[in-house]
Amino acid sequence: MKKSSKKLFRYYDDMPASFRKGKYVFCYGMLSVTLIAFAVFYVWINFNSILMAFQRNLGGGKTEYTFDNFRQIITYLKMPDSDLHIGLINTLKYFVVGMFISLPLAYLFSYFLFKKVSGYKFFRVIFMFPSIVSAVVYVAVYVNVLTFDGPVYMLIKNLFGKELPSLLTNNSTATPTIIIYTVWTSFGVSIILFQSAMSRLPREVIESGQLDGISWWRELLQIVMPMIWPTIYTMIVLQITGIFSSGGPILLFETNGGNRTMTISYFIFRSVYENAGTEFPAAVGVFFTLFSFPLVVAVRYFLGKVDPGVEY
């Protein structure tokens, strides 16, 4: 041990017991703030939400415990025109697009940025813009581009002589329009994580593949992917974890869930915001959590089996 370290420990041992006790009290006191916040704002709130899912308000401050909320959820899910049924369908659409379009595209774009293709610095800034600029600004720009007399409207009218329908007020186009927006703005964090993993790849391995004359897609799939699999694995698990909380910025688009744009997360928000009671929204959250938890566990198990075990 270095002399400086020995001197430091000797100095600490020479401290009065009361002073050392005071330091422990200070440290544990600072940690207790975090523990209390965790207990109140996470453990208690989630536990209380689970209890509320089984409650029914009888009025006059009285409640009873029942499964009626869950029976009501099943009833609504069987009704094609109910907000909960529409919300489930749209939420699964957002999840599928995020998992099978946004995530692969983010991986592909990260690879080309890693290879420093021509103009890669410019594209890096473009991909990161949605994470820098406020979402309110992006939604406003996106809506104005697609609105009546906007650039897209005028371009289609001049080229094809047809008027573009109101995309956000049409039942068949409102949700696809918002989904396109989520794809456009979803690359920032994913690209940061993928690029961070790719930046740690040994240059020798990449150069060896280049000397062997492999194509870029083989390098992408057979060299890069196995070596950054832990990052890909984490991204996939996070996507699965949020399967029933996937959704677009419905609140920012101000559709209020109309025109068949409802999602499960916005349904819960609107139910609470409109003072419709907290018991049923809590039951919706618990209901879909019960489905997502075993799915996450199963996906983690099978993806763990795919792990190539590459270490570098």
Structure write-up:
The chain has helices at 3-13, 17-53, 68-77, 83-114, 120-132, 135-146, 151-160, 174-184, 187-198, 203-211, 216-227, 229-241, 250-253, 264-273, 279-306; strands spanning 55-59, 62-65. The chain has 312 residues and is mainly alpha-helical. The chain folds into two domains: 3-53; 70-133 and 188-306, MetI-like fold (Orthogonal Bundle). A two-stranded antiparallel ribbon has the order 1-2. Helix 4 packs parallel to helix 9, helix 4 runs antiparallel to helix 12 and helix 14 (264-273) packs antiparallel against helix 15 (279-306). The mean pLDDT is 85.
Key traits:
two-stranded antiparallel sheet, 312 residues, mainly alpha, MetI-like fold
Précis, in short:
The chain is mainly α. It is built from 15 helices and 2 strands.
CATH class category name of the largest domain: Mainly Alpha
CATH superfamily of the largest domain: MetI-like
* Count of helical stretches: 15
- Structural class designation: mainly alpha
Low-pLDDT stretches are none
**Number of E-type strands:** 2
- Across the major sheet, the strand order is 1-2
Q: Whole-number radius of gyration?
A: 26 Å
How large is the share of residues in beta strands?
under 5%
Topology pattern, helix = H, strand = E:
HHEEHHHHHHHHHHHHH
Mean pLDDT: 85
Shape: globular
Distance between the termini: 31 Å
Number of separate domains: 2
Based on the structure given, which CATH architecture of the largest domain is correct?
Orthogonal Bundle
Q: Could you describe the largest sheet, including whether it forms a barrel?
A: 2 strands, antiparallel
- Give me the CATH fold name of the largest domain: MetI-like fold
- What level of helicity do the residues show? over 70%
